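ok, trying the design again with the full structure, not the truncated one.
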């Protein structure tokens, strides 16, 4: 057992990090007790009678100011500093301030672990800086380019996981213990179903062509839309209806995929209302033992009443526990996570910067969320999203080869850290001419043999021998559309 003597100020915040890191991640039995020491933590191993002390720099700084909150611009760090230390696998990361206060305290201590890992982990996991630094984009989302991780040049790294791995090495060395890593590498394909189908009839097809010419001023796009509509008419395959293909991919890779479904269309940013099909879709997904989530509408992401109303609607269809991801990743911390907790939502997967990607929470591992306003650990877990198709293609405008290299880097890094590779690939982008080159390279491509780079649970080399999924077969029919007669003029409709 490890006994941790923890300062009694901001005790719940400190306890949250200690329990998550030492118990959930390193598999240690931990007893956390309050201590009158205000500037250090003391870890004692009862089995070996050894102990180690590591400092607190951040909350001691708050205590000195005689304030009872750190949720102020006064306490925002200037950057995330990086220190090298021999014997460790990764650099050390720590919050630093303009007055070099933490460095002066560091120089007064002779202890070998003069590193405040608790503060930087709490900072990254909770995202409390986004509550204090209210820099938002046109969708009222926090702009990731103002995050400390981005300005410090570490957004592309899972620095929380690096901290935990370094701590594991240090504890084993100084306490003479063996930690037990509690996780293993996994892949989580996720699909936000913004639109179940591209066109509901000839009228909407024609309207899109006109929009391509008049609004988007692109004859090339209009031609592409025209050809796609003719193909749908000839084959009965709507380009957005990829549910069965995604299910087939998950089955062949022996993965469980997440399908986030919308229950309301409340504003123009919500693409389509397909609630008439929800019951049938959910039953199909449950039969295939896949994971169903709520794709909260654009307004629900920042409106408690709307969100709770959509949760109740989803409960009518789902009938069991489910998670959530907000449309446009439009959330605010900690409000949205608190709403999820209040509604009984078990997980969320919205904390990702749509415009620049990266490790927004500094980790590739699921973690329980902590409400830093109420100082309470919530029941909802965050499943950090790491890859989103629209981020790479539309926002960052990566070339296909750049996206491929980034995918390989992320997959190797997440595998090394035994984390969860959470991937979002929209159903609306699968058959898009813009996205096809990326899909072919990142999901299924041929290098001697078919390669499934992202969705393969094996290594990069093992993926070379992954069977290529079959495309739509003649047996894949559209009973959903047959029931409504919405697109009878465009699509062939038969039973499954």
């Amino acid at each position: 057992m490890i006994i941790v003597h923890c300062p009694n100020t901001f005790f719940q915040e400190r306890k949250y990090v200690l329990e998550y890191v030492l118990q959930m991640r390193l598999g240690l039995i931990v007893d956390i007790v309050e201590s009158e020491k205000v500037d250090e933590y003391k870890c004692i191993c009862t089995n070996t009678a050894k102990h180690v002390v590591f400092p607190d720099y951040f909350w001691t700084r708050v205590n000195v100011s005689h304030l009872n909150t750190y949720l102020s611009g006064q306490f925002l760090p200037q950057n995330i500093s990086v220190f090298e230390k021999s014997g460790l696998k990764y650099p050390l990361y720590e919050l630093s301030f303009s007055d070099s206060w933490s460095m002066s305290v560091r120089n007064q201590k002779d202890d070998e672990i003069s590193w405040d890992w608790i503060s930087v982990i709490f900072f990254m996991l909770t995202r409390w800086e986004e509550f204090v630094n209210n820099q938002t984009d046109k969708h009222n989302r926090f702009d990731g380019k103002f995050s400390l991780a981005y300005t410090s040049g570490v957004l592309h790294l899972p620095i929380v996981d690096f901290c935990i791995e370094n701590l594991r090495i240090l504890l084993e060395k100084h306490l003479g213990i063996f930690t037990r890593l509690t996780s293993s590498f996994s892949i989580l394909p996720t699909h936000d179903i913004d639109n179940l189908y591209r066109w509901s009839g000839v009228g909407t097809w024609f309207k899109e062509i006109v929009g391509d010419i008049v609004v988007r001023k692109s004859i090339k796009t209009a031609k592409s839309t025209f050809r796609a509509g003719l193909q749908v008419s000839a084959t009965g395959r709507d380009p957005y209806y990829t549910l069965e293909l995604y299910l087939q991919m998950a089955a062949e890779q022996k993965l469980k995929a997440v399908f986030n479904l919308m229950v309301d269309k409340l504003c123009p940013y919500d693409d389509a209302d397909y609630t008439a099909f929800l019951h049938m879709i959910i039953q199909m997904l449950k039969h295939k033992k896949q994971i169903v989530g709520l794709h909260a509408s654009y307004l629900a992401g920042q409106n408690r009443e709307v969100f709770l109303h959509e949760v109740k609607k989803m409960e009518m269809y789902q009938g069991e526990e489910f998670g959530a991801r907000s449309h446009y990743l439009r959330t605010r911390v900690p409000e949205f996570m608190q709403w999820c907790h209040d509604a009984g939502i078990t997980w969320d997967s919205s904390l990702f910067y749509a415009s620049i990607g990266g490790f927004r929470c500094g980790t590739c591992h699921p973690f329980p969320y902590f409400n830093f306003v109420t100082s309470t650990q919530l029941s909802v877990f965050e499943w950090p999203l790491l890859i989103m198709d629209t981020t790479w293609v539309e926002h960052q405008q990566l070339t296909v080869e750049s996206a491929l290299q980034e995918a390989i880097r992320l997959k190797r890094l997440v595998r090394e850290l035994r984390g969860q590779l959470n991937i979002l690939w929209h159903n609306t982008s699968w058959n898009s001419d813009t996205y096809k080159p990326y899909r072919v390279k990142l999901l299924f491509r041929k290098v001697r043999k078919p390669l499934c780079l992202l969705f393969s649970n094996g290594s990069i080399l093992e993926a070379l021998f992954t069977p290529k999924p079959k495309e739509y077969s003649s047996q894949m029919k559209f009973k959903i559309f047959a029931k409504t007669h919405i697109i009878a003029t465009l699509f062939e409709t038969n039973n499954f």
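Keeping the full-length input from now on. The radius of gyration is 25 Å.
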